[in-house]
Amino acid sequence: MSSHSAQPARDPRSDSRSESVRNEPALGRNVAPTPRSLAASSLEDQWSAMQDCVRAVVQPGQFETWFRRAALVHADGEVVRIALLDNFSRGWLDTYYREVLERAALQIFGSARRVEFLVDPEAVARPSLPPTGGTDNAPLPPGPSSAVGPEDAVRRGLLLSSDLGLNPKYTFDNFVVGPCNRFAWAAAAGTAEAPGKAYNPFFLHGSVGLGKTHLLQSLCVSLLERNPKTRILYLSCETFVNHFINALEDGDLQKFRNKYRNVDVLVVDDIHLLANKERTQEEFFHTFNALHQQGKQIVLSSDSPPRDIPTLQERLVSRFKWGLVTEIEAPCYETRMAILKRKSRDRGREIPDEVARLLAERVDSNIRELEGAVTKLLSYAGISGRPVSPELAREALRELFAARKGQPSMEDILNVVTERFEVKLSELQSKRRTNTIAFPRQVAMYLARQITRHSLEEIGGFFGGRDHSTVIYGVDKIHKRAQQDPETRALLDGLLAKLKATSE
Ligand code: ADP
Ligand code: MG
Questions:
Q1: 368: Cβ below 6 Å to ligand 1?
Q2: 191/313 same-domain check
Q3: Are both 24 and 85 inside the same structural domain?
Q4: CATH number at residue 384
């Protein structure tokens, strides 16, 4: 396997829709002003009017689930931008309710607007906050998913503007330690013990699906267990970028700065997404300095070490190296076995050693994929009522085994696509959505759907953890284009022929 091995990855915390990282305004150019007539209150009024239109055409239950906890955060002559609580809502609204919202916008604004979604829980919560709120530990608004429990306690501990929710399974205790990740695990735990002191910043890097988000969240949970009052801002880099762009558009940088500089711990997942975002890098530089000077802890994760993040300003590279830079490596065979055992036990079932060995041999570079294999195998066993055996594993996980028998694998697809379009794998997996990247990405998704047995979720995983609706959208787009455009058809035929040749 090459180092660019295909890696199914479904990151529950990563923002998975390419649409969500917006391009920042170019450096040196004035930021397009938001029409002043669209002040915050009028956005609220406009949203309320749009909600009325939506209410008239959807079931009451649907309305409550999808449209109540959302907010209009921007509207101009072309675009209306709607903030949502989480990725799941974004995927859902994008797939099923985009037209409804476009019609509502048409009714309210008198002409067509493009509807864009972004994940911004803070913006959604804003109307229900007291007037002075916004940067403090205000509890989350009640909603269907906010049942009270230990998870909720963890969630409440985060600052409101954090990405929603820590995964309660992501704790240091649940992290299987081996030679590949022992140092990363110990460093994360050490950071949680002495925030702002031991390692600042703590910079964790490694390839996708190796446990970076798990460790970052464990660190947050551990900090909150020690001191529930710790003011932690935990977010994906994507959210930082989105917040920054909103602040630019609203001309409210001061508020943005207050928010980011008044925390005890700032945790930014996937900081490599600062690549090609000059203005955001500049702002992050100042945020970093302000926090570091106050002795506040900064924790960052990335898919590569600081010096390898494309276009990252030298002064950020050097700051990221001030504290501790640690790599999390792919798990060795023994660790993979331990993880398989642990994950199956967590799911209430042991898998026999010979089956674990079979899986550990085949899935060698991505823990998320290992986890997925266990889940699939155990549910297959549950449904079929058969014991977990090597035969059952071969049946349940056909694609894992089939890939060895001359059928083109995801890796082959990624290879031919990156070669044909002269793009890098990291670009396909990035959030970039310029056509030069988005088109090859969608072609690769289409091919994966045609010739592998991977599920939509798994395919999304190969492209930086995109969700299934993004994959459906991509596949569909290429399918339609191939029907209408002979050139696209020829392109796909060429790629398919090449894949066939490589796998023979
Ligand atoms: P990354 O952020 O590096 O892409 P994640 O932290 O999302 O990876 O990890 C992917 C999945 O693998 C998660 O479900 C996580 O709980 C699991 N995982 C990763 N490393 C370990 C480990 N050492 N022990 C147990 N589970 C792990
Ligand atoms: Mg992650």
A1: yes
A2: yes
A3: yes
A4: 1.10.8.60
